[in-house]
Amino acid sequence: MIQDQNDNAPQVLYPVQTGGSLVAEIVPRSADVGYLVTKVVAIDVDSGQNAWLSYKLQKSTDRALFEVGLQNGEIRTIRQVTDKDAVKQRLSVIVEDNGQPSRSATVIVNVAVADSFPEVLSDFTDFTHDKEYNDNLTFYLVLALASTENNFYSLVTDSDLDRESASEYNITVTCSDEGVPSLSSSVTLTLQISDVNDNAPVFERSSYEAYIVENNTPGLSVFTVKARDADWNQNARVSYILEDSSVNGVPVSSYVSVSADSGVIHAVRSFDYEQIKDFQFRVKAQDGGSPPLSSNVTVKIIIQDQNDNAPQILYPVQTGGSLVAEIVPRSADVSYLVTK
């Protein structure tokens, strides 16, 4: 039985350390305590305790801002990120095995504390002119290689994937030996991100207001509400539902209806301005995900008046049964009020 010796130092797989580009992780200025910046991925080809790895923060531009998980290599914020924090942050992480004596490797992690790329690029200009880098600058890597066994490697995510931000990745993996000259081969993988129902429908307006002239024809199309869903396929299919409520004690469904597919609102009855001048109700937009997500919006309908009523004479009363006469004395002066 061959016993292992600790004759191999840890190998850092991510962040990739090359002379061809600078990889920087972006941290938004809104990042809270515990925000996952990135994860240092390393392997050790030894076995047993000789392959057990620990991660330590050796140097940092701001030690009060970041920490490294001892066992998992996760780099997280340890306080709230603020506008006062420098855009350019550099961390030096040491990866050490558990052999006797131990072996280690050091990796440089560049972090950009910023909310926009122009801000990043202006502050990282001097990094790209360091002697170990050229003018190539790379941001946002979400995948890394992790060793399994028998020289097989798995492609694992390094941070959350969002289909709405990027639905597909083309990944080129290059394998090179350590000969002189070095020989290599590459393979390109296409990774398509499947959708999960993580976005509720959003209406185009926060509220709606529409007008309808009284004495309308029942079934008249009043207007249309519209909501959009950022998800895909069935998860983005929006249905419209009239929420239960009442108007003057009468179900709102006896006033209006909503087309489930199109969001078109129809008048169910003919409205009379002299009886009702306005009313409101709520429409729900629900997607086809499982479980479904939904949002709702308030709709106000205003009835407009038509000149559909002639004047009504209240006095003098006009009847066929009696004669009403106003009496004017013979002594009445000019402008004497006869009646009204």
Contiguous low-pLDDT stretches (5 residues minimum) are: 127-149
- 3D shape: elongated
Question: Main β-sheet, in a few words?
Answer: 5 strands, mixed
Radius of gyration: 37 Å
Beta fraction of the residues?
Answer: 35-45%
How far is it from the N-terminal to the C-terminal residue, by CA?
A: 124 Å
Whole-number mean pLDDT: 83
Please give the number of β-strands.
25
Order of helices and strands: EEEEEEEEEHEEEEEEEEEEEEEEEE
How many individual helices? 1
Largest sheet, spatial ordering of strands: 5-8-9-2-10
Structural class: mainly beta
Helix content class:
under 10%
Give me the secondary-structure topology.
Layout: E1 11-14, E2 22-27, E3 36-39, E4 41-43, E5 53-60, E6 66-68, E7 74-77, E8 88-97, E9 104-113, H1 117-123, E10 137-139, E11 143-147, E12 153-157, E13 168-176, E14 184-192, E15 202-203, E16 207-213, E17 221-224, E18 227-228, E19 238-242, E20 246-247, E21 250-251, E22 256-258, E23 264-267, E24 278-287, E25 294-304
Parallel strand pairs: 2-9, 2-10, 16-25
Antiparallel strand pairs: 1-4, 3-7, 5-8, 6-7, 8-9, 11-12, 13-14, 15-18, 17-23, 19-24, 20-21, 22-23, 24-25
Name some characteristics of this structure.
4-stranded mixed beta sheet, 25 strands, 5-stranded mixed beta sheet, 2% helix, 340 residues, mainly beta
